[in-house]
TrEMBL record:
It holds the Pfam family Peptidase_S51. This is dipeptidase E. Hydrolyzes dipeptides containing N-terminal aspartate residues. It comes from Tyrannus savana (Fork-tailed flycatcher). It is an enzyme of class 3 (hydrolase). It is found in: Cytoplasm.
Length: 245
């Protein structure tokens, strides 16, 4: 075993770049040379074959083999044998339902939290790494048995976090308003809004913001705060984090 190691990316594609292009150096640094093969979980998209081809091409270009879990006759065994796990983006509800349907929630938790294998998530794959998918942006197109997710970190994330456009005439709720509504419910955890182009690196009890943009942190009952890459978010990982302040 070893300490948990997570790379939680806001988005797979950044404007002007290819698939995972903006974070490929972070991926190589994160996986290192010990990992030879990555287990890819494409459940968030309907066309799993095409998704696996895209991911395989990228990871092979970085020097890693890639196995897609949907090609395995025994998904649980695939997780048990994996050296590293990558869950890609798409629809978070579809993804979480498939994780439950294939009995993978506890298996992935064990591999990551007890065995210490690296876990990488992008978008929906980042959402499911947290306590719950309550703060996803996706439509509930299918019905998972629970909104509780993998719980690899004790807070929630809002990937693709968008700031209000001051020039827009759109009168719908902003992302910030939606997160504030979530925090009107009792005992709701912190929510880290990750803008596109940013990611959270978790190594044991240390969490650091990486990338090129920034993040916005929402704590229940407090004003949101703005954070640049390099910010130490380790306090969010402790059991004494300010859940109910």
């Amino acid at each position: 075993g070893g300490p948990r190691r997570l790379l939680l990316v806001s988005n797979s594609t950044l404007h002007g770049g290819g698939y995972l292009g903006h974070c490929q150096q972070h991926i190589q640094s994160f996986l290192g040379q010990k990992v030879k093969r990555v287990l890819f979980i494409p459940y968030a998209l309907h066309d799993r074959d095409a998704y696996a081809r895209t991911a395989r091409e990228k990871f092979e270009s970085l020097g890693y083999g890639l196995d897609s879990i949907h090609e395995s006759c025994d998904p649980v065994e695939a997780v048990r044998k994996s050296e590293a796990i990558f869950i890609g983006g798409g629809n978070t509800f579809r993804l979480l339902k498939a994780l439950y349907d294939n009995s993978l929630i506890q298996e992935i938790r064990k591999r990551v939290l007890e065995d210490g294998i690296p876990y990488m998530g992008s978008s929906a794959g980042t959402n499911v790494a947290t306590i719950s998918i309550n703060t996803t942006n996706d439509m509930p197109i299918v019905y998972p048995p629970s909104l509780q997710a993998l719980g690899l970190v004790p807070f929630n994330i809002n990937p693709h976090y968008l700031d209000p456009d001051v020039k827009s005439t759109h009168m719908g709720e902003t992302r910030e308003e939606r997160i504030r509504q979530y925090h009107e419910e009792p005992n709701t955890p912190p929510v880290l809004g990750l803008r596109e182009g940013v990611m959270l690196l978790v190594e044991g009890d240390k969490a650091t913001l990486q990338g090129v943009t920034g993040a916005r942190l929402f704590l229940r009952g407090k004003k949101p705060t703005e954070h640049e890459p390099g910010t130490d978010f380790s306090f969010l990982l402790t059991d004494s984090n300010p859940l109910n302040l």
